[in-house]
Design brief:
single chain, Na+/H+ antiporter like fold, Alpha-Beta Plaits, 3 domains, 4-stranded antiparallel sheet
Length: 541
């Protein structure tokens, strides 16, 4: 049974990676396909068991959502969102409440639902999905006018805690498990312990991370991963809003200066993608096509109301008083209110809670999310163009923490040899490209800062700094010249091979090769090569 589970998991992950590449090309979040995969595995019997354990699904999805929330903060570039922090904060709190109330009123007066159940559904659907919005903006490189992209990122990344808090409070009211005083304390505790907990844990983690001096590559990612879990779990233990805490911790840690920070952002980008896959695939496992057919009519009505009335009303009511956001910009922000992972998690939470719900909230949310991702997601680039909100000169990547507005520099080391061109020369006499700098000279145990009149001596190690280079189409490969190789004793020009030989390691010596360099057995060739499907070719300059 364990082997079968592993085969299924491997198959799902491999398909999801392939679908992600497809998503980057067409600009539509592949979460829709992950749902369908879950339905196929469950409904056709491909899944080894009849998965219908919503309590288990709620626990798994809650854990997955904490990582999504953490990355929402960790990937946010504070410098980019600071100009719109006030507006985005209002949209993420007051906007969520307004949306929930309007959807609740629609459910009661139009669909005929009971008051509390309508409001619970409104709370479940009130937050927007950050990951879906990010995916479309990044894949299409949609640079937007007037700080629209940072506002969307900040709002969609931070509005889940408000929706979670409203959902929990309304469920408590429906079940009658809390008095008015307890509910008031619940609100205070969620905000107080959640906010303070996230700040304290992030500050402690920052101090520890800087002083711990992690030696093993990859353990820095594990440290931040553990911090994210602690930021959610510890405040939740004392009644705090774990999602609020983990989001605040993510923002603080994401905007600290760490070594290899870009790799940390990339790591959590991958973790978040996996968590999304998990949530939407599990949603597909839980879904039943027969129940979805019954839920599609109310779901379609709610989707249209959200898209055309509830979301625009909240956005326009909040942004219009600022008088610096044109009508078209507000219309676009209203449109980019995709529903996704958080709505699913909160729907499962409402379903497993000991509340007497008269409507199939889970399957209705399923259909609304399905419509939102497939229709709204596909139309975002078109709507941006029609509303003339695209800025051709803006770089949407500046909104995210893996963007660097400074020139990426790398250090290199050059040994000054007695018969080399740099030996016994002054620094001012060296002919260097304008993009290369001499950063330091290592002379025995000394560390010298180079000046124009500094004399380079044989045995010196010169530390140079140059512009970094990253290219997925090229890579380095090391090959050893074997004893029986036809290259042994021959000049390099006779057998150039496939690729460009950049360097030869011969024992402790490093040789920069030329055409007449004679190869010896045991030489290690460092070769610059291209991907096989790359249209680029090497040629001599």
């Amino acid at each position: 049974m364990t082997t079968l589970f592993l085969i299924v998991i491997a198959a799902v992950i491999l398909v999801c990676v392939w679908l992600n590449n497809l998503s980057l090309r067409i600009g539509i979040p592949t979460l829709l396909v992950f749902m369908l995969l879950g339905i196929i595995f469950s409904y056709t019997g491909l899944w080894p068991i009849d998965f219908d354990n919503q309590e288990f699904a709620e626990q798994i999805c809650s854990v997955a959502l904490l990582f999504i929330m953490f990355y929402g903060g960790f990937g946010t570039r504070w410098k980019a969102v600071r100009p719109v922090i006030r507006e985005a904060g209002l949209l993420a709190t007051l906007g969520v409440v307004m949306t929930a109330v309007l959807v609740g009123l629609f459910g009661h007066f139009v669909l005929g639902w009971e008051w509390l159940e309508s409001m619970i559904f409104g709370a479940v659907m009130s937050s927007t999905d950050a990951a879906s919005v990010f995916s479309i903006l990044r894949s299409k490189r949609l640079g937007l006018k007037n700080n629209t992209a940072p506002m969307l990122e900040m709002e969609s990344g931070s509005n889940d805690p408000a929706a979670y808090m409203m959902t929990g409070i309304l469920l408590a009211v429906m079940t009658g498990t809390n008095s008015g005083g307890n509910i008031a304390w619940m609100i205070i505790a969620q905000i107080l312990f959640g906010g303070l907990g996230g700040m304290i844990i992030a500050q402690l983690a920052t101090l520890w991370f800087r002083n711990m001096n992690i030696q093993t590559h990859g353990f820095d990612s594990l440290f931040i991963l553990g911090t994210a879990i602690a930021a959610y779990a510890l405040p939740s233990l004392v009644g705090g809003n774990g999602y609020l805490s983990v989001y605040i911790a993510g923002i603080i840690l994401g905007n600290e200066e760490f070594q290899d920070k870009k790799s940390l952002v990339s790591f959590f980008d991958g973790v978040t993608s996996l968590m999304q896959v998990l949530i939407f695939f599990m949603l597909g496992l839980l879904a039943r096509p027969g129940l979805l057919a019954k839920a599609i009519v109310p779901a379609l009505a709610i989707f249209v109301f959200l898209l055309l009335i509830a979301r625009p009303a909240a956005v326009f009511a909040i942004l219009t008083p600022f008088r610096k956001y044109p009508f078209k910009q507000q219309a676009f922000i209203s449109f980019v209110g995709l529903r996704g992972a958080s709505a699913i998690v909160f729907a499962i939470m409402a379903t497993v809670f000991n509340a007497q719900l008269q409507n199939d909230i889970f399957n209705i949310v399923f259909c609304v999310v399905l419509l939102s991702i497939s229709l709204q997601g596909a139309l975002i680039p078109w709507v941006a163009k029609k509303l003339d909100i695209i800025d051709r000169h803006a770089d949407v990547m500046k909104t995210f923490n893996d963007y660097s507005d400074s020139t990426p520099m790398r250090f290199g080391r050059v040994a000054v040899e007695a018969d080399g061109p740099w030996a016994n020369k002054y620094v001012k006499d060296l002919v260097l490209p304008g993009t290369m700098l001499l950063a330091m000279i290592i002379r025995g145990e000394e560390r010298l800062l180079p000046r124009g009149d500094t004399l380079l001596l044989p045995g010196d190690d010169v530390i140079i700094m140059a512009r970094g280079f990253e290219d997925k189409k090229t890579y380095l490969q090391e090959k050893t010249v074997k004893v029986d190789s036809r290259r042994v004793g021959q000049p390099l020009s006779r057998y150039p091979g496939n690729g460009l030989i950049m360097m030869i390691r011969r024992g402790d010596k490093i040789i920069i090769p030329e055409g007449d360099t004679i190869l010896e057995a045991g030489d290690k060739l460092v070769i610059l090569k291209l991907e096989q499907d790359s249209p680029t070719v090497f040629r001599r300059g």
